[in-house]
Amino acid sequence: MSRNRSIEDDFTRRMIIAAGAGGVVWAGLVARLFQLQVLEREKYQAAAEDNHIKLALAPPQRGRILDRFGKPLASHRRAGRVSIVPEQTRDPAGTLAQVAALIDLSDERIERLAGEITAGRRRNAGFVPIIVANELTYEDFARMNVHAAEIPGVQVEMALTRSYPRGRDFAHVLGYVARASQDDLERLSVGMEADEAKRLEKLFRHPDMRTGRQGMERFAEEYLRGKPGFRKLVTNAHGRVIEEIPDERFAPVPGKDLYITIDSDLQRAVIERFGEESGAAVMIQVDTGDVLAMVSTPAFDPNDFVNGISGTAYAELRDNPQSPLYPRAHGGVYPPGSTFKMVVATAALESGAVKPTDRVNCNGYYRFGNRTWHCWKKGGHGSMDMHNGIKHSCDVYFYDIARRTGVEAIAAAARKFGFGEAWTLGMTGARGGLVPDPEWKQRAMGEPWYEGETLNFGIGQGQLGVTPLQLSLMTARIAAEGRSLKPHLVGLGPQSGDDGVLDQPLDKDIIDIMRSGMYGVTSEGGGTAYRSGDLGLGGPRMAGKSGTAQVRRISKAERDKGIRKGLNIERELRDHALFVAYAPADNPKYACAVVVEHGESGSGAAAPMARDILRFAIENDSGRKPAYGQTASVTPAGQGEPT
Amino acid sequence: MSRDGYTGFSRGEARTRTAKSLNFETMGPLRRLAKLPWGFILLIIAMALTGVAMLYSSAYTNPNEHNLWYLQLTRFGISFVMMLVLAMLPLSWWRTLALPAYAFTILLLVLVLVMGFSGGGAQRWLQIGPIGVQPSEFAKLATTMALAWYYDRVITPTSGRILIHIGALCIMLIPAALIFKQPDFGTTLALIASGGVVIFLAGLSMRVILVGMLAGIASVPGIYFVLADYQRERVDTFLAQMSGHATNALGESYQIEQGLIAIGGGGVNGKGWLQGIQSQQDYVPEQHTDFILTVIGEEFGFIGTTALLLGFAVILGWSFYSASQSHSWFGRLASAGAAATVAFYIVFNVGMVIGLLPVVGMPLPLISYGGTAMLTTMACFGLILSAHMHRDEKLSSTGII
Prior knowledge:
By secondary structure, chain A is of the alpha+beta class. Among the domains of chain A are: 77-165, Penicillin-binding protein 2a (Domain 2), CATH 3.90.1310; 264-304 and 327-620, Beta-lactamase. Chain A is 40% helix and 17% strand. In chain A, strand 2 and strand 3 (72-84) form a beta hairpin. The longest helix of chain A has 38 residues, at 2-39. The termini of chain A are far apart. By secondary structure, chain B is mainly α. Chain B has one domain (18-389). Chain B has helices at 11-16, 18-22, 29-34, 38-59, 68-88, 91-115, 135-154, 163-180, 185-201, 206-226, 229-242, 252-266, 277-280, 292-324, 329-353, 371-389; strands at residues 117-119, 122-128, 131-133. The interface between A and B is large, with 39 and 47 residues.
């Protein structure tokens, strides 16, 4: 019995030992939990934060571009988009197949995307989303939105896409934005520190980021771009975004809105007036230098370039015989023809070689040396003074005074009117044309200047090349009676630092003679564009000057046969029709230049067009006070921004 | 525990109630149910419902798993009824069943090795009709019962010699070896540990135990080399983590690390039910099964985890106390062994999740999602309750061996 007793006691003792050991183990577990959850909780809480909160780069919203009266020319449009984050997808091919089952994707595109995803992973950029499809239809967007949660790595979102509501109207002025290419990045990061350039590159890898590739978009890139911020995103273990934590401190700073001086309604009216014709027209407000219309037609739709234009679509634009990609208004160089005669006359009077009353007799041709120069009017104009010379556009009169004035004086006057200088005004593709002189000829061609060339210079032909924009500046300076002129295209925003001011003095008395001649052209019997002078507004008239730019030389044989010009030759061989004008004639507010390619006759094709667009400007008061006030900044681009 | 008439009695007092207890067999089933220690049972229900709530939290955001809580609740309901039925079984039945159950388990374990299917890197599962079972889970209870049966037979007032324990060791090591072969190191250890508790309680000399423990520790490096590759990786991960080395971010150390972040991130008070960020966003793999503690830790904090451990401590403490009240060796040892089985589940699971032990696939009793473990746990409680209800039975222990 005592033996039994001791076994019982031993059992009890062992039970107590076992329970005690269990208690020690339990205490150990609680101690460890105390360490984790009480002593070190902050460390783990921070780790949890790190775990699930990701800072995603938030691209800034690009500033809009608005017209004179605040109508949007470049803004944003919401569009559905599907993208794949390479690092979040295990099986790119499978993921793409799942997406392709929901939206239409070509096999070729799938293959390319698979390559991009693999490449993204390889160069450690797996976090940068790769866009599968842009501009989803509403149905596609809804369907993708429902199913995306089941496909790891697939994101469906509404993104802001750059949009040009006026389409082609401003293609050559605004240009367009595009995904930044390597070239773009190199251009944009010129002069930057290495890490700054790296940040910029990272920003532009974001699928929402675009950079101005052409036109005003490119010129005002920094002003429009804004500053990127961050989005605080809560993600799950698979990287899928669960929610966004709003945080004002990280919000991106949107780019500023840029106002340009153009009246978009006038711009549209000009384009409509051109119809199927190709050409260019520029209108300038005489007292402010504001560019009110800047048309080059035909044009392309910049919306096509925002998400990358396809190779075939681009080839179609490039190979179109009417060259829609060509910025005629500021990049198209034409011989000014007779529209240049005011410059020659001004030079003649300024040089003192000619008086306004000096008469030249025109019997249809002009002999100099052993060559003969013809007047456009076969029988000649008879005795011409300066007023009549301009009014009738008598070539013989201008051969004579040009020869007497000399090439240097004419070239100097041309420069005073803005010729020979590229006026970018914030656009790309501007060209300066050419104002020839002996020094240039010696340099460029290694030959001396022949006096016969001065005669051609006198009627705006020969080597002389000008842009429609330059012609409009010349006209504006005449309309402003020689006051200085500072042309603007940017109303509120960075001004181009490259462009000068047309402030070289011009004698008001001399300019008045030009004005009276131009008034004669449209408003006196015998004027070359007499029929176009009346604006049909019951009062104000237009003053102007026609011009014809030769596309090819007329051979002697043709001249002898009487074929000098006409609508009976092939269109591509017809001359360009030019007209420069201002209105109202007695108190000029608007000056314009019109070039109708292959329009044949300046007075026939271009003058009515100039009349109609000037009438539109007057009727609609296009030059009235702009929406941005008169506080336009004159700071050059990239050197500080106006508030 | 409330004063339900079954706690707080000394052995002397209990003995005076023997006459009443002898009438037990003649009571109606309802009166017998009423005699159960309901405080203990309510605590078990509370723990299981906590588990269901945590399962809901861990899986409700996942469309494929959001009804797990409901499945688990159903399982618990079935297991609960089974536990009540088992609690009613006379202790002598348990003893009679011990050997057949043990033999059957050994058979199943052999079958697993021959024709089982794999899951989680080891061959542990056996398909019986529509359900897959893990015989190794049942083996824990069956081995405990077999050991209790064995000692019940061999312990006599004159016993006490070391030799009788050799038989017990064999009973324990046969299933242990079969499970180790699967390979399932965790369950092997748990089985040896809970079996060891039974042998210890049965009176194995302290000196022998000490020597055995030293030998066990000495053999640890040797065991490392017979482990399967995935087990070795786990140990490596554990050692690397203990020594503060960063390891692979997506493997097991990821799991442990994310689990620690969840638990530590819960802080003192926790983030609130359904509010755990780690838990809700799939950061912790297996969080509805083995890593369910991370959800409790994150959403209910130190208070929640401590309360959980306290709840388990009460359940196990009472079970141990109840075991000590039994008048038969079978009742004592089977009951204590069953409590030890549950206790080692908890220690291994919690120890693994909070980074004190290597990853051994071991669920948290009553809380983790899983059918076999739930059945085993509830069967253990059924045995403990039965031993409690029949604590005054003095089983005739005529030495067969």
